[in-house]
Fold this protein.
Amino acid sequence: PLALGLYTVNAVYGDTITMPCRLEVPDGLMFGKWKYEMPNGSPVFIAFRSSTKKNVQYDDVPDYKDRLSLSENYTLSIKNARISDEKRFVCMLVTEDDVSEEPTIVKVFKQPSQPEILHQADFLETEKLQMLGECVARDSYPEGNVTWYKNGRVLQPVEEAVVINLQKIANRSTGLFTMTSSLQYMPTKEDANAKFSCVVTYYGPSGQKTIQSEPVVFDVHYPTEKVTIQVLPQSSTIKEGDNITLKCSGNGNPPPQEFLFYIPGETEGIRSSDTYSMTDVRRNATGEYKCSLTDKSMMDSTTITVHYLDLQLTPSGEVTKQIGEALPVSCTISSSRNATVFWIKDNTRMQTSPSFSSLQYQDAGNYICATTLQEIEGLQKRKTLKLIVEGKPQIKMTKKTNTNKMSKTIVCHVEGFPKPAVQWTVTGSGSIINKAKETKYVNGKFSSKIVIAPEENVTLTCIAENQLERTVTSLNVSAISIPEYDEPEDRNDDNSEKVNDQAKLIVGIVVGLLLAALVAGVVYWLYVKKSKAASKHVDKDLGNIEENKKLEENNHKSET
């Protein structure tokens, strides 16, 4: 390369400078020499080489002691290039008749160190111009330039917002430059995560180059502009018994550490950290909650609804009533929103609410009135009613001739609760019959039956007894040889009776009277026609009380 028409050698600081002698070697050369020129133009000779003796001599110049090397072709090399080596060197070839000279300009370059941002601010405050830091790049030659960047964009000076000051200081001993660029900056809230860096631009042997510093992020402080209150845990619904925490936050940096919490019914705020906790909340905690900064500015509010559910069952617990009695039952609720009520009896969901105008045995059982609050998870209530329906033993006796005509079945239909104990006896003899069979006890009803083959008329007694009363009923049964109208066995013991009890009683009495009259007439006719003697052996019962009376009267008349 040429500088102002002169040949220039670019060297890197610390490397070896190589300068060829750009003169053609003439005939009759005697010797060659190198010199450099002082700023005032005076020459300083540094190396000599004879063309005949081939010996090399180096002048006693302190700056170049042990650094020079002159080759046979008169190329001069200087080790460990320094900034002071930037001079105008001249190659001289001397003959007897002439002296030829050719100058060479030496340029030395030094790459600076990677720039660093020093003296960084601990934090930045908005609306305040302050020193952000200093970008330092050391040991450059020639001097370089420093540019500041924010998020990859050049920071241009702005009055009272961006102030940049660049200093370049040369080391007296080495001649190398240190560039220091300070940045004063007024940040905004948006600079919270901004990346600041600096770039040094310098010149090297091949042209202009740059080196960038590591980016730096600063903590930007800015005042709170908004306060926010929230309820934790973040649930859409709160129910009685829950634990809740109010959390207040400000959008400043650093965030506020203390707040005032305003509770419904309280006029003064409660000073606390950023949280305020409440345990086992009740319905009276429903209301508007607020929080503010301690200076009572920038307030926010939220409304809390504590959902509740009350259930009242009347009556409840264990209730004992008598059959036929009325029992009003009510299940009422009080809740913060619509609730669903349902009834369960003995683990089976009922279609309608229970109503007892006349209690029956089948009404007894375990009732549960349950309710849940819609869309409120975990809020449900239930209460129980254990209904016991008691009744004195009621007896109805029936008889029928079996299809084989060899025996009769006598049934004692029993109602009552607690379950009555049943005993069969033969009237007159007082003997107890132990061969009775009982059906299953369901809804306060069951049956006890015996099978007999009476040779003579007999009276059977069915005794039913529980804690309330002892009930005795007798039934006359005719001898197996005497035909009679059989009574059908009640097959509906297991089913609940839905016909009014009083109506059934009236119908039973009427039918019973008619059957008694008919049987008495038939028996009397048969008796007159048959023998006068009555059977004295008893196996099991038949007949009717009216029938026995007639037979006894007829016997008495015949004997008379």
